[in-house]
Amino acid sequence: MSSSNNLIINKSKPLIGNLMIPGDKSISHRSIILGALSNGELTISNFLASDDCNATINAMRQLGADISVSEDKVRIKGKGLFGLREPKQIIDAGNSGTLIRLLTGVLAVQDFDSTITGDDSLKKRPMGRIIEPLTLCGAKIQAHEYKAPLTIHGSSTLKSIQYDQSVASAQVKSCLILSALYISGQSTFYEKIQTRDHTENLLEHFSYNINRDSNYLSLKGRQELIAKDILIGSDISSAAFFIVASLIVDGSCVEMRSVNINKFRTGIITVLREMGADIEISDVKSISNEVIGNIKVRYSKLKCVDIKGDIIPSLIDELPILFIACAAATGTSKISGIEELRYKESDRIMAMENGLKAIGINVHSSKDSIEITGGKITGGKVNSCDDHRIAMSFAVAGLISQCSLTIMDTQNISTSFPTFVTILRELGVEVFEV
Ligand code: S3P
């Protein structure tokens, strides 16, 4: 992205092509953190070089990790579990909830103190969900009203963790798993609703022994992580923008290769298919203890959908773009049980409701649900609320708008998908940065 802040998108002709979607963000963060804690050397390929993941590289370097980057490859000489050193400065997690929450799990069990903070959006997000369970195990974390900055007084004598999920969050689970790596004895984890298991998959990739039985997980701390190269599949959360774009722009047919299709991330495919989407998945295989496949999408007439319950965590980041699909579908869609969306990079229920209304779509929301009636997208001006996924969702809406659609404050697209505008242009979409 250039330094321009606003995007203008015009109605598009059919989208046709093969796209290369960048690497998965969740796995990129985890591969840096766990790579730095491993013994040996490894190369990470198809790493997502976005602002969020670069913040993770910087944070781990501040903690003494030896990391070099060239294009989409990252080379790490692991320090081992007990090789980190006290940071000289405050660690800046930028916009990244994943970084602050996961790294706090590591920092809580070091034999030094540290402080971690972030940008204005991150400083508003809830941290009680990690502070409370860590404190129960003996961690000492200071934070005003459970918000960043967090000052962490490291301690190597935490009690083992018995985690019983109160909020379905892979970030909270992963934070506690990372602490558990340092705690002698067995920690146990129970999830009522299973969430993305990239941390667990990567630990196994590094030969760390964990016991998994559907919703239960247990692991013994202080085992060795043995470094091994990692190949990262494309991010389904980024692919989702082009999946929906291809479904709603008449005549489109787009293929995306080697997309990570971890079963806890593919709720968006399930729901779009229920809406009538023509989505084909082929060449499914395993890489670095994750599953990838090619995704081919053809324009489809979508109908409304009613979703709630256990499927929500598996499409939590895709809800904004799903709302655009609902706006382009026939009938009224209802999506419930989504209060978590209010605590993301922005209050995404409010941001999407305001934006959709501004472009002519009928929307009603409650604290934890939204109803969207499909209709004609008029175009106009929307506020992205400095949230990358809101900005990209409305860019996709612009592809079928009657008049051009202006999206304000889109610079945060680079936190997760720096090549988003380039790919739109490669597909022939008229995008202006102003
Ligand atoms: C993530 C988990 C999800 C997701 C976030 C990335 C992760 O957050 O929204 O973008 O990498 O673990 P929650 O765990 O808060 O649901």
Number of strands: 24
What ranges have pLDDT less than 50 throughout 5 or more consecutive residues? none
Tell the overall outline.
Answer: globular
Structural class: alpha/beta
CATH overall fold name of the largest domain: UDP-n-acetylglucosamine1-carboxyvinyl-transferase, Chain
Main sheet: strand order: 22-23-1-24
Q: Please name the CATH architecture of the largest domain.
A: Alpha-beta prism
What proportion of the residues is helical, as a percent range?
25-40%
- The CATH superfamily of the largest domain is Enolpyruvate transferase domain
- What is the CA–CA distance across the termini? 12 Å
Mean pLDDT: 97
The main β sheet shows up as:
4 strands, mixed
Which small molecules are bound?
Answer: shikimate-3-phosphate
Question: How many domains is the backbone divided into?
Answer: 2
Strand content is 25-35%
Which oligomeric form is depicted? Answer: single chain
Short summary of the structure?
By secondary structure, the chain is an alpha/beta fold. The protein is built from 12 helices and 24 strands. The mean pLDDT is 97.
